[in-house]
């Protein structure tokens, strides 16, 4: 089931987008601001985001940065009245997968949304990380140990992804904290990292894989 998130403060346009993008096997959520969008993102998996830049409680570009830091593979299409070449280049360089300027054709928008969803689905098939008796599918949030599915929190998922995508390398505690807690908190107690490491080890029974490098950080050991 595809889940689309529309972040647009113009109520009429927001409703129009919801109707235009409605499809079988698709759920659409809409939010008028950054605050409600962040709350929605915490509730479940999103397949694609349509994001306005000029929002009442901040810049969509700042939200784009946070989204791409936490979930780099999640497609985000910017939908905005900012239509200069400089605006478009800035949005794309900040991580947007596409950039659509207002006014726009709904049929073109649908086509571009479907294109991004197809790309994302194709990439997801190649993104299952298999290590020994583990299989980690970060796109669909499915994590298997000896074929048994294990439920991980969002924080544990971010930690696991950092470790396995850099397996063999030692990641410092500060690097891990900055990569896991991406909600803009000024201070995160480093004890939270130790607790998350322990929970992840126990859930995956990965004591032989997730190693502590005392005084430095942690590593997923290559075997």
Observed structural traits:
223 residues, Rossmann fold, Arc Repressor Mutant, subunit A, 5-stranded parallel β-sheet, 8 helices
Structure write-up:
With about 220 residues, the chain is α/β, with parallel strands linked by helices. It has helices at about 10-20, 35-40, 60-70, 85-95, 105-125, 155-165, 175-180, 190-205, and strands at about 1-5, 25-30, 50, 55, 60, 75-80, 100, 130, 135, 140-145, 150, 170, 210-215, 215-220. The protein has two domains: about 1-125, 3-Layer(aba) Sandwich (Rossmann fold), CATH 3.40.50; about 130-220, Winged helix-like DNA-binding domain superfamily/Winged helix DNA-binding domain (Arc Repressor Mutant, subunit A). The strands form four sheets. A five-stranded parallel sheet has the order 2-1-3-6-7, with helices on both faces. α6 (about 155-165) packs across α8 (about 190-205). The two termini are about 35 Å apart. The model has no long low-confidence stretch (mean pLDDT about 90).
